[in-house]
Design brief:
Number of helices: 8
Order of helices and strands: EHEHHEEHHHEEEEEEHEEEEH
Strand order of the largest sheet: 1-2-10-7-12-5-4-3
Structural class: alpha+beta
Low-confidence stretches: 332-344
Strand content: 15-25%
Number of domains: 1
Oligomer: single chain
Bound molecules: 2-oxoglutaric acid, fe (ii) ion
Distance between the termini: 28 Å
CATH topology: Jelly Rolls
Mean pLDDT: 92
Length: about 350
Amino acid sequence: MTIASAPPILDFSAFYGDDEAAKEKLINEVRECCLHNGFFQITGHQVPEELQQAVLNNIKRFFALPQEEKDKILKDKNTWNRGYEKIGSQILEVGTAPDLKEGLYIGEDISKDHPYFVHKKLNSGPNVWLETMPGIDEFKAVTMAYYQAMHALARDVLAVIAQTLDLDPSYFKDFTTDAVATLRCLHYPPQPADSDEKISRGIGAHTDFGAITLLMQDEVDGLQVYEKTTNEWLDVAPTRGAYVVNLGNAFMRWSNDRYISNLHRVINKSGKERYSIPFFFSGNPDYIIECLPNCREQGQPAKYPPITVEEAVKSSYQQSYAAAEVFKKTTAAPVAVSSTAIVA
Ligand SMILES: O=C(O)CCC(=O)C(=O)O
Ligand SMILES: [Fe+2]
């Protein structure tokens, strides 16, 4: 595995088998990636390819609807991160134009009498569906089946990450119980051929906020990961069926900055429509994260005080929001900014 290369593709099937040497190899590879830039890719997981394709087909149908239909479920009509976000709603990189992407946010369907909703826990509330969309029942069934499959995969990936720190595979059990997570379905139209590459972004350079992200890309490239050793942006070419896995800011803090939450961005220069579906796993909002075992030398203090998952993720939101505010005050944005909600 060379260092300055796009995230390696690891065969995750070893996790489900009983070949101890293969398991050990997987754990070692994942550890190396977590230490380097917190990015790797996996094949050999247990998410059925038919389910992956079904969810992609369904979100393509959604994004193909007329703008005024999609606008009926705008995300800024609620405070719990559900619904549709128009093109140009986010700026994730200071000094760039608003992101050329539209999104649909789906999560656990939390009723209004659930304690998470009553206590306004992180991103918790009912899903917002476009009930008039043709085939909406299939759309709901497929996206929610996929959402649950992503929770299961997140738990499995965390079991491997636990072992990279010489912890029991079940170490993250309480953290993953009653966890909050968001499925963000994304569509990036092709960037205009004459767009200024210095400021035009599908999604500006950012790090993710939660614990881990599991990203499925369709067939069109555009995702790039920053490589600090060579100061380059490396393309992450889509591999059919694979997941790009990356650690978020909350995990980096939890690991005392031993494991990395790394910059990445999307620029869609392919001339084609690009679709991707990241799943952001935050964890149980009340779980307290404090320096994980084996993440500091003996006698070395923890860099950060204990904090809940909810506080950790919200502090990333606030920093990102502040960055977007600075941009809007100092630049005449070429695309109207309709929402200031920042979610990554
Ligand atoms: O679309 C992609 O490939 C990346 C999306 C991403 O980084 C994000 O939504 O945080
Ligand atoms: Fe991201």
